[in-house]
Design a protein that fits this description.
Chains A, B: Keywords: Antiport, Cell membrane, Endosome, Ion transport, Membrane, Sodium, Sodium transport, Transmembrane, Transmembrane helix, Transport. The structure is a homodimer. The termini of chain A are far apart. In chain A, a hairpin with a 2-residue loop joins strand 2 and strand 3. Chain A folds into three domains: about 5-135, no CATH class; about 140-265 and about 275-485, Na+/H+ antiporter like fold (Up-down Bundle); about 540-590, no CATH class. With about 675 residues, chain A is mainly alpha-helical. In chain A, about 70% of the residues lie in helices and about 5% in strands. Strand 1 (about 90) of chain A pairs parallel with strand 2 (about 100-105) of chain B.
Chain lengths: ~675, ~675
Amino acid sequence: IEAPCAEDGGMEELATEKEAEESHRQDSVNLLTFILLLTLTILTIWLFKRRRVRFLHETGLAMIYGLLVGVILRYGIPATSYHHKTPPSCSLKEGPASTLLLNVSGKFFEYTLKGEINSREIHNVEQNDMLRKVTFDPEVFFNILLPPIIFHAGYSLKKRHFFRNLGSIITYAFLGTAISCFVIGNLMYGVVKLMQVVGQLTDKFYYTDCLFFGAIISATDPVTVLAIFNELHADGDLYALLFGESVMNDAVAIVLSSSIVAYQPAGANTHMFDASAFFKSVGVFLGIFSGSFVMGAATGVVTLHCFPLLETALFFLMSWSTFLLAEACGFTGVVAVLFCGITQAHYTYNNLSEESTKRTKQLFEVLHFLAENFIFSYMGLALFTFQNHIFSPIFIIGAFISIFIGRALNIYPLSFLLNLGRRHKINQNFQHMMMFAGLRGAMAFALAIRDTATYARQMMFTTTLLIVFFTVWVFGGGTTPMLSWLHIRVVTVSRLQLIFPFCVCRVDVDPDQDLQPCVDNFQVLQGDGSQAEGQSKTKQESAWLFRLWYTFDHNYLKPILTHSGPPLTSTLPSYCGPLASCLTSPQAYENHEQLRDPDSDLIHSDADLTFMFGDTAITANGASANAAGGSGWSANGKRSGSTSEEALERELDSREQELLSRGTRLVFPIEDHV
Amino acid sequence: IEAPCAEDGGMEELATEKEAEESHRQDSVNLLTFILLLTLTILTIWLFKRRRVRFLHETGLAMIYGLLVGVILRYGIPATSYHHKTPPSCSLKEGPASTLLLNVSGKFFEYTLKGEINSREIHNVEQNDMLRKVTFDPEVFFNILLPPIIFHAGYSLKKRHFFRNLGSIITYAFLGTAISCFVIGNLMYGVVKLMQVVGQLTDKFYYTDCLFFGAIISATDPVTVLAIFNELHADGDLYALLFGESVMNDAVAIVLSSSIVAYQPAGANTHMFDASAFFKSVGVFLGIFSGSFVMGAATGVVTLHCFPLLETALFFLMSWSTFLLAEACGFTGVVAVLFCGITQAHYTYNNLSEESTKRTKQLFEVLHFLAENFIFSYMGLALFTFQNHIFSPIFIIGAFISIFIGRALNIYPLSFLLNLGRRHKINQNFQHMMMFAGLRGAMAFALAIRDTATYARQMMFTTTLLIVFFTVWVFGGGTTPMLSWLHIRVVTVSRLQLIFPFCVCRVDVDPDQDLQPCVDNFQVLQGDGSQAEGQSKTKQESAWLFRLWYTFDHNYLKPILTHSGPPLTSTLPSYCGPLASCLTSPQAYENHEQLRDPDSDLIHSDADLTFMFGDTAITANGASANAAGGSGWSANGKRSGSTSEEALERELDSREQELLSRGTRLVFPIEDHV
């Protein structure tokens, strides 16, 4: 086979076919490896969920299994079974083109460019075909795996707490990530200089490389922490702050890093950061934002009623086309998809039929679940199968210290500034929790693996991998102890069901949406006479940015883009009459009376809910909660965490007694070892 | 850019990067084109569904839009905007390897083999990069688009009518497809000989090529017809026969064609069909079947309760791994996935939680919908963008006549033979309908495009494309007139709702599963005293093959693989006691009493349902229907279509009157122009 008879066309063709078949089979085996990994993860997670094990999240588990398989692939399979063969090589004077024709005695074969490989890798090509095969093209992450994850994050952002904390979230995400990036970049530059002095650095490492590292490692991904928050129904504001920040700073990190790469001076010697380039990239970022926003709004208008399958398919296609459109325009698809998700959750969701809202949610939930666990198990695998790791202890230790300092300089000063303007202060314990929840995950990894051609990038990749492992396992696993150590109040399911025995709350749904019916039930029980009063009060307390946005959105955007909200004819001034009636959907008039806008909850019933989650941050809401609550529920107006916790505990107990004395049926979950 | 300075590494790198970026952007635009095509299709279909337009199915529409875009791409875009560039070429003595290294002044680039191109195509490479770009790698169809379609088909086969007609379906699918393949192959060989005489043939065309064409064109795909059957609630048996045949013969055609290719004699001169090779491939086929069956059964055991997301993810992964496992073993993944789907529908489905059954169905429904419409719109596009069409009028006309004769020699003789053994005869009109419903679709196309390297294959591809277009548009569009012309009874929704006013039947769900609750409601209304009698009668009438299978499945397989069915301890002989209690799931004991096995409907309530669909084939069921029906429903025991139709019409009318006189509320669909 090594040197087929060039004259016999049939034999040669057969050999090529055999080789292609072999390669296809190898691909199947590789994919199968990952699928078995995911299957194992799912089975174990299922066991963990049944046993209520919280110290290890599915992503952490996926990494462990990935590591194990990586070890097996690396050391377990004897070297003889590898496909030893030096690929033929040919020389050209011209630079590489995307397509290359190979002329083998008159027959032409087409080859496509896969990428440059350096001299070390050529050795690997010869030696270890198997390990190279399980290494994916990094673009797979950006074009296939990240989009559903990011879209799902955006689509899940339809939360009352998110919009209430919008200002803070944007501050953390934009300003905070920029701070983190520069702090880490500069500290790492110091580390690199130190390494040069010690003589540990064997190749070039520029200042822009350090900044790039700062950008990629600033993308936080507290998926583990948030899962536990969800399960324990921890504070809604804290959840929204963490989730919102992590979603947004992914977008910021990706744009930051790509602008650092794209606008670095062409001359190889300077490699300093260019401020004007940065502002250019901010412009691009804003361009993407508004483009995606318009795109998302456009899809909101194009929804179909009556046929759930068509609605779901269209929804899926519109999300995907946002991604592709952005990529085609030279923007960043992942960022576009994020904002498309947010817009769709806010507008399109209202236009979909009930069946379709469920379908789309479930579809993206499954895609997100699979993609996320795939990435994490791939990370585990990559630690052993990636060929060009550069473990540099000084760099790694320096990076760990830098990200700690960078996170601290992001959270604490910004929280202080935000607290100056916020009515609901972000208290010390919340700040510590946010500091603690600075895990790194899929986005940092995907950005790091995108380019591993140079020495500096390879060192960054190895370090990023280790940081992800460490933060996911250690910080992720420590969330539950940390929550109780910081006295952050969690409401467990059995507790909730004692108070609201009329509804069975499921375990694994996010707190806001799940508790809503319970709270409604409760208000029916209590009689909500004084609610109107409470409403207006809470409305005044809302952040001004949010209030401004809410009014504009509710009065103008929603009526134009969805079938909900008041008709435009009633919100626009009278001289806009014809335009208004032209833009308003006929259904809006019908809805006007009986419609309870789902987003009106954003403002109205916050008081009750925050009280429900009864934590240390509820003080500002105390008065209105009191007004809304009615009988038997005295609001605790104190700032201190432990005192209000005790007060709530007492409240819960008395409420429990009251219900029991009335003979109400109590619903307990089957297994509740909380 | 054409000749970058080879000395300046930075500039060169930048040029490569730019080119890669450009290529990525181009890919995005291409995908976007397809997504917009699908979006257009969905929007139009939505309009059609609302207007109840039945003459054009979504797949037909997708083809039309594909054609339009193909025309625009081909003729609309000025040639100047193409990316004119001759790819560099280099020569080697050795045969092509899957990986090629390119050495450009010391730097190495890796290239992967895309395939052989002939001299005509090299010209195209130079001329029309854009058109080549929208042409997908044919393996995309087999590895990405076909699996969800075929899996969904298998997963939808859980139908009472399917299992009752299993023997006939297998006969049509295996024997019938083999007949069709040989008849078409031999007829086409005659056509090819004729073309040689006339001098229309400019290159080689062997006998095995003709047989190959027979195999690929024997895969029927009456998706259009079945959609209309679904909508009109046409006869269940006919539906099952057509659907079952089309699903199964895809598998047969794919194995047939690959065995014809794989086992053709290596010497280029003989190219005759080898019978021993055929039997070898039958062995492979049986191997795949049993392998997939075991695989599917294994996944049936590995289901998780309580967490729908995990269940759905696991279900998806198991289906996919079946595909990959088969490919890795050198079998045919698509076939494995089909049987995996059938097994999962039969066993796994019973183990899933209610939420998951819905989720999995919806997930695969969306995937199937998107994949199918993508393939059909790609077909439309390919007619203009594919570069190597060979339109040969004689070959095309010959092919049309051959497939007609092939289908006739499949349906009529086999139906005659089957009718000798069947209790429920397949009557003349049903046979005509089956003959009519021999559309060609996705599978034929995918098989034809897989290899278009030689002259013969290119001619086949062009012909296949035209056959698909013609059959989908003409036969697909003519289904509704044909149904009424053949007097095949359809039950429309408004009609059904008149009879069973207590349930609102949705329009676009398949007849069996949707009607089941209605029938149950009806029985509650009527009182089902004499049902036991009807049961035993219908049981005796069932086909022996089915009865044998049903007993084995119900007594042994279901208890082992699922939580339903009777416990093994009661079905196995007493000396197997310990083994039995070990294999039985604890839930089976609990279920034993109250369980209504969902598949028991397969036999028990057939009588009522067949009566409901009241068509010409119900005669054999007449007696039991009479027994089960009870009051006011006289069974019509005559063979003739029109008479029984009139009788049913009268029945419906009298029933309607009766209900109206009782003052029952009647539910009408909003728009029903049926």
